[in-house]
């Protein structure tokens, strides 16, 4: 009698009802609800990341105001000799991106996609940060459009006049930009960064009983 091979849940190979073996495909409804659960978890992690992100922006902005007497609206550097500038709120957003993405990465790795132990930390970090850069570009674009007074979708300065933290357009522009980037980040991270959770298979070899002893 030959050894039988069983697979733990999520394995690619199993014995089919007709006796053949091959890759197992989950029912479409199960795959759908699994995707929904992952997206909800990703959203929860993302929400915590938004808090971290905005906290970094607030601390950075308050620090520059306190130490150097300027805020995020000041120009950081001219953009290639044009009339456009990289402003300090862009710098704050980049700093917040690094901190929040490291936070999100570790939570998603351990909880959302559960790939901890299935792939190396650094191997998953690189694509995660690369996907995050795409999200960062989305965030910066939306943030700039929300804050630039000449933008057709700029936040109204009659409401967001900077008179308090809750009415500071820098914080709201950053928040809206981060939220817009979340769905894009989820799709790319599921399909690329954390694919180890989908591709990981653990075969379990069962030793058969001697003939005549299987009672």
UniProtKB/TrEMBL annotation:
Keywords associated with the record: Membrane, Transmembrane, Transmembrane helix
Organism: Corynebacterium glyciniphilum AJ 3170
InterPro entries: GtrA_CellWall_Glycosyl, GtrA_DPMS_TM
Superkingdom assignment: Bacteria
Protein name (Swiss-Prot/TrEMBL): Putative membrane protein
Family label: Belongs to the GtrA family.
Disordered, as annotated region: 1-28
Protein's membrane topology: Multi-pass membrane protein
Regions that span the bilayer: 39-60, 86-105, 125-147, 170-188
Record-annotated GtrA/DPMS transmembrane domain positions: 41-147
Subcellular location: Membrane
Any single biological process term in GO: polysaccharide biosynthetic process
One Gene Ontology cellular component: plasma membrane
Keyword flag Calcium: no
Pfam families assigned to the protein according to its UniProt record, in alphabetical order: GtrA_DPMS_TM (PF04138)
């Amino acid at each position: 009698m030959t050894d039988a091979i069983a697979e733990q849940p999520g394995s690619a190979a199993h014995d089919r009802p007709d006796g053949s073996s091959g890759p197992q495909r989950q029912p479409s409804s199960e795959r759908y609800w699994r995707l929904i659960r992952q997206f909800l978890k990703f959203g929860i992690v993302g929400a915590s990341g938004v808090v971290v992100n905005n906290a970094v922006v607030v601390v950075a902005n308050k620090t520059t105001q306190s130490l150097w007497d300027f805020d995020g609206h000041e120009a950081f550097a001219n953009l290639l000799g044009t009339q456009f500038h990289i402003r300090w709120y862009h710098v704050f957003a980049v700093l917040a991106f690094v901190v929040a993405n490291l936070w999100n990465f570790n939570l998603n790795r351990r909880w959302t996609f559960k790939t901890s132990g299935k792939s190396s930390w650094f191997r998953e970090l690189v694509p995660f940060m690369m996907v995050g850069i795409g999200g960062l570009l989305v965030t910066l674009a939306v943030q700039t459009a929300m804050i630039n007074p000449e933008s057709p979708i700029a936040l109204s300065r009659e409401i967001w006049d900077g008179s308090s933290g809750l009415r500071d357009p820098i914080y709201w522009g950053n928040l809206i930009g981060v939220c817009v980037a979340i769905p894009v980040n989820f799709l790319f991270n599921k399909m690329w960064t954390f694919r180890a959770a989908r591709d990981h298979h653990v075969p379990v070899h069962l030793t058969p009983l001697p003939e005549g002893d299987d009672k």
